[in-house]
Design goal:
Distance between the termini: 23 Å
Radius of gyration: 19 Å
Structural class: alpha+beta
Number of helices: 7
Strand order of the largest sheet: 1-2-6-7-10-15-16-17
Strand content: 25-35%
């Protein structure tokens, strides 16, 4: 039997499902898990660990295991995306107009046109002491974990629930799956049509894996007659200029899928699809502004018909 809950956390709708003969009481604790993680990792909460680290830039700050795990995940993402996925872009994100929780952000931003920062891939300037769990940012650097934190949270929840039965956790499009369903049946997950979100473009059949979607179809706002979005290109410190509307990636884990989806999105369709096809452990769907859908070489094995 499939048991499921839905709630809102980390600025996203969270869906959790566990296949188990009886209702696992741990399901009731999942919203509290996300609340605790958000209390540590949210840039929108003044008392969060992340806000404290950002305020104390220039000084060593002791952090929790949660913060340490997510920071090291962010390090991994930067190293494996060629610097395109990095948490050091908070100031650029704010300048682009994304300066509050998206649920509170007006469609028309009253911010001035964003400035260009020389912020490309400076994570190596952070003094990180893993043994003591202390972090020291340069005085002019501030962090935002963004989708990395959501992917990490989805993975933690799926792993905790996996001992009760096959589990799937969808944190705003970042999906972690603990096991295939009973009798090795796949999980069926829809890829939303960005032009009509009430329907799916495809249905994916998924085993133990991770999925992530990045795009500029939902989190966007007008600023000086320009549509801005929340995915920053570290080369320019501006919202990425890309011919991709959304990209969905299937990978061995949601962490791998998240960093791949953002890398492809920022790179653009030609370079992004080539990058994707060079990696035999990844599969993806790229949706363009004109409605065209492009599929990587491995994607067919995940399509349900």
């Amino acid at each position: 039997m499939l048991h499921q809950i839905e709630f809102r956390a980390m600025g996203s709708q969270i869906f959790v499902a566990v296949e188990s003969p009886s209702y696992p009481i741990e399901l009731e604790h999942v919203p509290n898990w996300f609340e605790g993680w958000e209390d540590s990792l949210s840039r929108f909460r003044p008392k969060s660990e992340l806000s404290k680290v950002n305020r104390e830039a220039g000084m060593p700050t002791k952090v929790s295991k949660t913060f340490a795990d997510v920071f090291e995940t962010a390090l991994y993402a930067e190293q494996n995306s060629g610097g395109l996925v990095t948490p050091v872009l908070l100031d650029a994100i704010k300048e682009s107009g994304y300066d509050r929780d998206f649920d509170l952000l007006p469609l028309q931003s009253d911010k001035i046109c964003p400035q260009t920062f020389s912020s490309q891939s400076r994570l190596d300037e952070v003094v990180w002491d893993a043994e003591r769990s202390t972090i020291c940012l340069p005085p002019d650097m501030h962090l935002d974990f963004g989708g990395t934190a959501k992917g990490w949270a989805a993975l933690q929840a799926a792993e905790r629930l996996g001992k009760y039965g096959p589990a799937l956790v969808n944190a705003g499009g970042d999906i972690a799956i603990s096991h295939a369903r009973k009798n090795d049946e796949p999980w069926l997950v829809g890829v939303a049509n960005p032009f009509n979100r009430s329907e799916n473009l495809e249905i994916l059949q998924l085993p133990l894996c991770g999925v992530a979607t990045s795009g500029r179809d939902k989190r966007r706002w007008l600023q000086d007659d320009r549509w801005n979005h929340h995915i920053i290109d570290p080369h320019t410190s501006l919202p990425a200029e890309t011919d991709i509307l959304t990209v969905t990636v299937v990978a061995s884990s949601v962490i791998e899928a998240e960093l791949a989806a953002k890398t492809i999105f920022i790179s653009g369709v030609q370079a992004g699809l080539a990058w994707l096809d060079e990696r035999s452990d990844l599969a993806g769907i790229l949706i363009l502004e004109n409605g065209e859908c492009l599929y990587s070489q491995r994607m067919e094995e995940y399509l349900w018909s």
